[in-house]
Design a protein that fits this description.
Strand content: under 5%
Number of helices: 7
Distance between the termini: 24 Å
Structural class: mainly alpha
Low-confidence stretches: none
Radius of gyration: 20 Å
Shape: elongated
Number of strands: 0
Order of helices and strands: HHHHHHH
Length: 199
């Protein structure tokens, strides 16, 4: 019975996160395309690297959520330290937080940065009047490889940082969520979570 409930919840979450991914991917693509359309190739490169940074940052949060212990945040929540309760909820729902941050946002950022990189290369080759030739091919290979290297390298370094500083990272994220809830009335966490605390 318990296994059946777990599978049902897992399927429900998978469908929900798939829909969220579809919507966010569309939004990311539309926004990045619109911004790049009105920007030069130099600004376009900055935007591409900004998208890469977003992917790396959310990957760090996802890893930190799974690595951070829940117990320190119980004490913070009991003392009503701003962000302590939100941090506790993050660690209690670490699997979903990691899935959203590392898989959804991280993968979307990877796809969008790759698409944006191709658009920037096209703008660059048009600017120098070398579209369709060997120059465009060479720049495309170099820029795409650079974006891939920064993404993978950034996430590799980020994982080490996330694991070693997991409690501090999740506490800062909790403080951000506390601010969003208190000042902007935006709630991103399910306060009715019935999951058992992490060991």
């Amino acid at each position: 019975m318990i296994l059946k409930i777990m599978w049902k919840n897992s399927i429900r979450w998978s469908i929900f996160i798939a829909v969220i991914t579809l919507v966010l991917a569309a939004i990311f693509t539309i926004v990045s395309t619109a911004v790049l359309a009105g920007a030069g190739w130099a600004l376009g490169m900055v935007i591409v690297f900004f998208i890469v940074c977003i992917g790396v940052i959310f990957d760090i949060i996802g890893v930190a959520a799974t690595a951070a212990p829940e117990q320190p945040f119980h004490s913070m929540a009991a003392k009503k330290i701003p962000g302590g309760y939100q941090a506790m909820l993050i660690t209690r729902n670490a699997d979903k937080v990691a899935n959203f941050c590392a898989d959804v946002i991280g993968d979307i950022s990877g796809v969008v940065s790759g698409t944006a990189a191709s658009a920037v290369v096209l703008q660059l080759t048009l600017a120098v009047g070398a579209e369709g030739g060997g120059f465009q091919f060479t720049v495309n290979v170099i820029f795409t490889a650079l974006v891939a290297a920064l993404t993978v390298g950034g996430k590799a370094i980020g994982k080490t940082f996330a694991i070693s500083q997991s409690t501090s990272i999740i506490f800062q994220v909790g403080r951000l969520l506390y601010f969003l809830e208190g000042k902007l009335k935006i709630s991103l966490l399910n306060r009715k979570s019935s999951k058992k605390p992490k060991a």
